[in-house]
Amino acid sequence: MAKDPIPLRRDQAPNDVAPSVIARGMTVHGDLKGEGDLWLYGRVVGKVSARGSVHVGEGASLQGEITAGRIVIGGQVVGNLSAPGGITFLPTGDLEGDLRTPRLSVAEGARLNGHVAAGRVDQMASIEEVVRREEARAYLREAG
Fold first, then answer.
1. Does the predicted TM-score (pTM) go above 0.85?
2. Contact between residue 66 and residue 79 where contact means Cβ atoms under 8 Å apart
3. Cα(128)–Cα(131) distance, rounded to whole angstroms?
4. Which of 2, 79, 82, 129 could cross-link with 125 by S-S, CB 3.0 to 4.6 Å?
5. Rounded Cα–Cα distance for residues 79 and 60 (Å)
6. Residue 30, φ and ψ in degrees, nearest 5
7. Integer Cα distance of 31 and 33 in angstroms
8. Which ranges in the chain belong to alpha helices (H)?
9. pLDDT tens for each residue of the chain, 144 residues long
């Protein structure tokens, strides 16, 4: 099993925000939102929103939507994906859901079951737009 390189030093993270790690053996129930990168090796049940990258490592699982600047899938995801910076599937990646991105890379052995919307960058919503829409939807659900 190959290890993903985790940037551990603060100066390696985008926008000077340290990466977050959900370790193997840890389960998180609830939505996650952050400015930097998220490295997932455990289990998350809930939506994930990050301005940086979200990496779902081999053996990890996520049940919920992911909206991030960039997404790398090496584990199992049940939910929709959206990333204006691109989505990469490693050979062990497994998606049950739809995805939207201008750039898509799928390694041999990866499994995708859903709809794919890939197109030009100027036709894709920015990550800020997607995050704002998701926040507005969440607010309306809570208020309604």
1. no
2. yes
3. 5
4. 129
5. 14
6. 135, 170
7. 7
8. 127-143
9. 445 554 444 454 455 667 899 999 999 999 999 989 999 999 999 999 999 999 999 999 999 999 999 999 999 999 999 999 999 999 999 999 999 999 999 999 999 999 888 776 555 555 566 667 777 888 788 887
- Amino acid letter, 70: R
Q: Which residues contact 58 (CB under 8 A, 6 or more apart)?
A: 1, 2, 4, 74, 75, 90, 92
| Residues 144, 129: Cα–Cα separation, whole Å | 22
Q: Name residue, tokens 């600047």.
A: 69
Residue with tokens 């090496």: 74
Nearest to 66 by CA among 51, 74, 20: 51
What is the residue type of 5?
A: P
Torsion of CA 126, 127, 129, 130, to 10 degrees: 120
